[in-house]
Amino acid sequence: MKYTEIINRLTGISCPVFGVSWNPPVSQRKIAQKIIIFLEAKRVLYSPYEYETVHPVISSVVEIKNFLTSELPSISEKSELQSYVRAMRNACNKFLSKCRDDDGFRYYAIRPGNIDNWFFTSAIGEMRGVFGIMIGQIASSYGIDIEDDLAQIIPIDKTQ
Known about the structure:
Blueprint: H1 3-9, H2 26-40, H3 54-71, H4 80-98, E1 100-101, E2 104-105, H5 115-142, H6 148-151
């Protein structure tokens, strides 16, 4: 999806728009692009819930969190990108906390109607919601196109 389409999908969020009133520093744009490319390969962010299994999802979320953490030192502290990356990392931490009990990661029996299934898919959905908003912000702020699979989690303005 082209970043200009993403700008039109975002709702109720104020941000500088690439090419209109703000041009991000090239190095920050490259970091943003690197982050988007990494996230495009992470199916946990967009695959149908019924295809997700607990341990691979948890491993993927941990990998995403570690990657985002490793990118933070190279991002300007005053940039919006830092706040977007921190929000995504916080969403990973929140997901991992919801999937943990005193003995470690909970075993979720993923079966329709099972309460554990509801908790697990709810936690994934909440994480995807945060990522969708932050990815949309990054794409529109830094002028980055996003593959359609990942772009489907960006919120849509249904009033347009």
